[in-house]
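ok posting inputs for the 1-deoxynojirimycin job
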Amino acid sequence: MSGHTPRETWWKTRSVYQIYPRSFRDANGDGVGDLAGITAGLRAVKALGAGIVWLSPIFRSPMVDNGYDMSGYREIDPLFGTMADFEALLAEAKRLDLKVVLDIALNHTSIDHPWFQAALADPGGPYRDYYIWRDKPNNWQSIFGGPAWSKPEGDSAYYLHLFDKTQADLNWENPAVRNEIYGAMRFWLDKGVSGFRLDVVTVISKPPGLPDAPDPRPMPLYHMLAGGPRLHEWLRDMRREVFDRYDCVAIGEGPGLNPERAAAIVNPADPMLHMIYHFDFVDHTGSRQGEDWDRVWFKSVFDRWDKGIGPDGWNSCVVGNHDLRRFIARFGDPKAETKLVAKALAASYILQRATPFIYQGDELGLGDTIITKVEELDDVWAKTTYRLAKSKGNSEAESLAKAVAMTRDHARTPYPWTPEGGFGAGKPWLKPTPNRGGVDLATQQGDEHSAWAFCHGLLELRTKDPETWVFGAYEDLLPEHESLFVYRRGTHGLVCVNLSSEPWPLPEPIVALLAERSCIFTSGDITTTQMGPWSTQVWA
Ligand code: NOJ
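and the output
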């Protein structure tokens, strides 16, 4: 990885498909997705046209945060299967020419991890210093709500947890911790995985002395902690100890980073990581989302990151994942035809100068689910939100509404394989999103006009003409337009999207550009003067 990465490297030309293992496919009928289910489902990922599969955590875990609370770095959680099942998954991926990227939580472990248990049992022993302890907590608040410090029963000190109280932050200052994590990464790379998505990697380096935060609320705190003093040093260390030794990709989850700070990390002349994914579209505060979301802002994010990362740098493009309400619910229009909206949004991000990440179900236009009772919530963050809202005197209905508005469960429902569901034989662990008609894989694979087929076509463009659709320079041609998103790729690629339910005439300079090109892909009729509601056209 040291020095320049080749321009045509696979993690730029291939697209990523994110699988949430609990919810992808259940092979053994226990109601929870598993590795055998993923293995069986990889053909569908390949058929879509993705080339890299990112698996949310599959490691041993008590599953309070569905695997982001790891209790074993070198073990598969029995809920998902065995090491042999994982090896079978890798073999099938290899057969299909799919790369597998694992999600690793390295900022914290579960308090069930043997290291934490040893730290509790023997406060004078070596594992105590694997975590961050203080006799008196500072004012930091946990991202999930409530204080970021907890005192174990019978213990004299508090441990830091930026997330749930069962997710204790690791002390990266301790070289033994760093070596444990590097060793675990090499273990999986030696097995044949092709890289990692590094969970909240930007907050592993805490400020010396752990001072009070000027604004201790979760999001400002997150921003304050992002890119701490030793982050670069440790990422370089990680690169030397791990990434430089393999043909692999390192993708950093980058909450709190702006393009300039991200560019320093993925700087092609001295890359610490290969890609960072930013939070402008996945910010949980949701202030820019909802009915009247701001299209000009939406477009400006792509532009800002393309410019910020620079012509030699490389972006990833994550618009939806397992941590949010569904992409289409945040940036669509509930009154418009789902299929058209899904296509327009897909064309907005898949053809960017970046590696696109497709979150399972987004390719079908899968929307938010319906939650009517607190018992239907699974997400630890949503349950904490509900509990805190009630403790502050909100009514049952108000507390539930607050939790439903933010819960990550919307994106975690079982993947719809068929009109009936087809997830598995058992009762699914989370109630499926109601199928409002045609939002399932079988139906869409059989329909050449489906959202799935459209997404497939966009991914195929990247494969067939990488010069234009992967590497071509990016330019937003109508940054101020309130609804039309028209961008240029390379010398001849042109994408026209109407991000609204109103028809819009194409401005004259765009019409002139279309006259020199042919329409190679469209979600409806080809028109050179006017864009229909949520219509998409790709020209070259
Ligand atoms: C980010 C992950 O995407 C999220 O699901 C998790 O809860 C937090 N990091 C904590 O690990």
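notes: The pocket of 1-deoxynojirimycin is lined by residues 65, 68, 105, 163, 199-200, 253, 322-323 (CB under 6 Å). The first strand starts at residue 16 and ends at 19.
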